[in-house]
Amino acid sequence: MNVLFPALHDASPATALRFGDRALSYRELAAVAAPLAGRIAGESRVALWATPTLETAVGAVAALLAGVAAVPVNPRIGESELAHIVADSAPSLVLAAPGEELPAALAALPRTDIEAVATDSEPAALPYEPVDETPAMVVYTSGTTGPPKGVVLSRRAIAHTLDALEDAWQWTAADVLVHALPLFHVHGLILGILGPLRRGGSVHHLGRFSTEGVARELSADGTMLFGVPTMYHRLAAEAGRDPVLAKALAGARLLVSGSAALPLTDHQRLAAATGRRVIERYGMTETLMNTSVRADGPEATGTVGVPLPGVYVRLVDDTGQAIEASDGETVGEIQVRGPNLFTEYLNRPDATSAAFDGGWFRTGDVAVRDPAGNYRIVGRKATDLIKSGGYKIGAGEIENALLAHPGVAEAAVTGEPDDDLGERIVAWIVPATGPDAGPAPTAEELAEHVARQLAPHKRPRVVHFLTALPRNDMGKILKRDLHA
Ligand code: MCA
Ligand code: AMP
């Protein structure tokens, strides 16, 4: 399987990548990525400053060609989260677009600029690609406690998941994928950029999400749309009053939602406005994609469909027994096994072994299976994981960031339902008192603080100030009592 992107070797003039008015054909992509791969070959691991640009896509392809694991970094990342990622992944250099100003922790590393402007040249000589188990990427993901963990993804896992989606979605070189997802997670980067490239098709990235951008690209030659539920929620609202958008969505071959559950009301509003159904697929940073509603299968709205080819999925009850029933009612934890799984959490053998039940990866997601074999996700085992705008955010990391603020004595973080974001982050704060405390912080100040330390999407959207947090006899915070 060694070759991840066969179309690069054909040096075809077909468009591979387009970001706004900048584009690269496969021939041009090979011409810019091959020399960059040559420059970074032999590096241990590289940080990739993952702005939503052509450069990020070129940098990712070059790292894959070179067989050097890339660590995509959110360009809006805060100080303490970046410090953790740099210390944990120890990149030997950073790849960034020319002229990009980097934060200190990355600016201290050797830097290689990503040149994404193709000059007319001979077809590039592509390097011989490494074996399948070679680490391809380290993607950071939040857990319930502690700082984010680096998920090591092999070339094998990436190739497998993209080929399974080819089958489920009849994804071909004729497809033009439209999306506006960030490029530092699996959804936007692996599915949304590497997916089209593995098929020999194209991707049109919008730079940033807007309903007008989606309408424009789908009205032109876009055939598929990827988005998180927050994006479909906004599209549903707009499609109801904008016939141009409704027509553009109606004309797409496939509308795919993932990263969080798409509420039935949004499914229904989209269907009413466009006559089209959005299909959902289910995955995780650690597992890449597990299940999907198939493009050629029966309608299964409200479910995440059936296991992808090669992926084994089971439901397990509280006693650890596999559930055989497909009755749409018996609830269990989803566990998965297959070539789509990650290799390990970087530097965390303890966390890696705790994540498995024999060869099965424990997802922490809770679901039922219907008689047709479709999985319907009904919840999540950990209440301390929040999905907001499709981002997974651990309550513990936000609590730690809040506690580091001098005006905060105690902090608890919860998620609450939000029509737009799915869940919004809520902080419950006991302000510091005493002679050194200074004035009590404002809600805006605490949101700013979290955005600066971690990332803007991790900032609390609501802050409640209390005189004490509800605790049990052991001193543990009773989060359930907070919302009451
Ligand atoms: C606001 N901003 C701030 C602050 N407040 N910046 C600094 N300090 C502050 N206090 C900035 C934000 O950075 C952002 O800037 C802008 O203001 C708006 O912020 P926000 O409200 O957070 O954005 P939004 O409008 O709510 O964004 C909605 C969104 C976004 C576009 C849907 O949440 C998104 O892109 N979600 C995608 C998540 C995703 O890809 N998940 C995949 C992981 P600016 O606009 O310039 O950024 S899950 C995965 O990979 C698995 C495998 C799976 O299944 O897919
Ligand atoms: P992440 O760890 O950020 O990769 O997020 C993975 C999590 O997103 C999964 O464990 C699920 O909880 C959630 N998720 C992804 N896709 C879906 C979906 N289609 N429906 C419901 N939840 C989803």
Automatic annotation (TrEMBL):
Stretches assigned to the AMP-binding enzyme C-terminal domain: 397-476
Protein name: Acyl-CoA synthetase
InterPro entries: AMP-bd_C (IPR025110), AMP-bd_C_sf (IPR045851), AMP-binding_CS (IPR020845), AMP-dep_synth/lig_dom (IPR000873), ANL_N_sf (IPR042099)
Cited NCBIfam families: PRK07787.1
Upper classification of the organism: Bacteria, Bacillati, Actinomycetota, Actinomycetes, Kitasatosporales
Species annotation: Streptomyces natalensis ATCC 27448
UniProt GO BP: fatty acid metabolic process
SUPFAM superfamilies found in the cross-reference section: Acetyl-CoA synthetase-like (SSF56801)
Ranges for domain AMP-dependent synthetase/ligase: 14-346
PANTHER family recorded: ACYL-COA SYNTHETASE (PTHR43201), ACYL-COA SYNTHETASE FAMILY MEMBER 3 (PTHR43201:SF8)
GO molecular function, one term: medium-chain fatty acid-CoA ligase activity
Family: Belongs to the ATP-dependent AMP-binding enzyme family.
